[in-house]
Here is the input.
Amino acid sequence: MSVNVIWFKRDLRLSDNASVNDAISRGLPIICLFNLDAQRIGRIDVSGIHIEWELDCLRSLARDIQELGGVIKFNFGNIIEPLEEIHQKYTIDSIIANEETGLQWSWHRDKLVADWCDFNQVNFIEHPSNGVVRKLRTRDDWKKHRDKRVSAELFPKPSKLLSPNDCQSDEIPTMDQLGLDARVLENRPKPGEVAALATLNSFLNERGRNYRKGMSSPITGEVMCSRISPYLSVGCLTIKQVFHHTVSRQRQVKVDPRTADNRGFTSSLTSFQSRLAWHCHFMQRLEAEATMDEIAINPELDELLNRQLDQRKFIAWRDGKTGWPFFDACMRYLTATGWINFRMRAMLQSVASNTLWLPWQATGTHLANLFMDYEPGIHWSQVQMQSGVTGINSVRAYSVGKQSTDHDPDGEFIRKWVPELSNVPKEHIHEPWLMSQVEQEEYDCRLGIDYPEPIVDEKSARKSGISMSYKAKGDPAVKRRAKIVFDIHGSRSRQSGRSRN
Ligand SMILES: Cc1cc2nc3c(=O)[nH]c(=O)nc-3n(C[C@H](O)[C@H](O)[C@H](O)COP(=O)(O)OP(=O)(O)OC[C@H]3O[C@@H](n4cnc5c(N)ncnc54)[C@H](O)[C@@H]3O)c2cc1C
Here is the structure.
């Protein structure tokens, strides 16, 4: 019997799934397949929290598949193993998958599958599933392609999946059963497609009202940001779906922006749409350069900056023990929950690269491990941008002091996440190192004993980082490379402000 295989990678959903739609239209019995690549487990950018989230979402997908009469096979190892097994038993006509924009290892895996298909005379069909354009010739037309892609009609959720009569689904194993572990996260989101849509809808109808103003603070951002990123990262939701739901909400708001339900949403939804476009823009960078976790897109600039891994600074940064209260609170919050808002992510990375002068590969890898929503295309683009190694972006050196007073003026976030400072009053909470000995005793916070002294003088270290960055950016070889980088990766949208993304 001939069958078709839907190979699920990072697209754990049935709705708006081009591969599912295609496989159904071909009429042959279908076997759904998920392979947990064993090589990923050993990768330094992959954490147990990523695998656990993936397995939870996969379990939800497996239930949906079986409810429609379908079957799902699970393998932990090399993708070729289950393909061989299925092919021997049934003869695979086609393997149908969605394109994945990933790091180099994922290209090697896909190439392995393509070669196996060639050898076994099996069709290998891949569909685009977001705004990333494969084999793009020039960035000039990219936006046109992206906008067309995301506004295209959604693929419907199937009502039935035809499967071979003698094929049984596999149980999706737990982390324990696989011998894996993950750090425990606070407020972990619910897995699956239904939860993904519910999260999006609660944002579009209620939580997103003050998104534009609220997104920058870790306190308000926790509720006012959409929180869809973990779902996008494993494909429980597509950018296309998010785009469509947002457009329909924008139309509703436009009819009468002043009703109680709609007030505040106009500008917030516009800002949200730009973030969705950024998602695709940054993913497109990785599509063009799959080695962005190791090599800067402006290698000449990176070489001149010559950052060094100072273990003492790295450990203080990693553990949220720098002696800068707001920074430490953000790092500890992220470690505990697996999420933090954009501005604070940018600060965590920028401080590592520009103030502490640590190599971005090491700090970016640590952040990848902390983010539950790790998405290599966005992550490594942002890590490189915040570290100033693209040559086409302005130098972004965040002041911890400014972020602290702007986004946590009373120190409530700091006190919650840095309990060593819980008795320190507002006037000292941003700069506890200025407390006198008597004040330190009074507030139970002795510097160097209960809470560290600042690891370096933040202001002067940041200034020195900025000036080294500007100097390196002016180098002729760096400038020449920046022109090439802009051709391949630069945003073509007109910029009124300081930087090109
Ligand atoms: C150093 C650094 C690393 C990052 N790593 C990741 C990562 O691994 N995975 C990830 O999804 N995002 C990453 N981001 C981007 C951004 O911080 C997150 O997308 C966002 O905080 C996720 O929360 P949300 O879904 O509530 O976002 P919202 O603000 O509600 O935005 C909605 C969606 O738009 C997209 N988006 C928002 N901001 C950006 C941005 N600046 N660039 C690209 N896309 C964006 C995301 O898909 C996001 O889910 C990183 C940012 C920085 C500075």
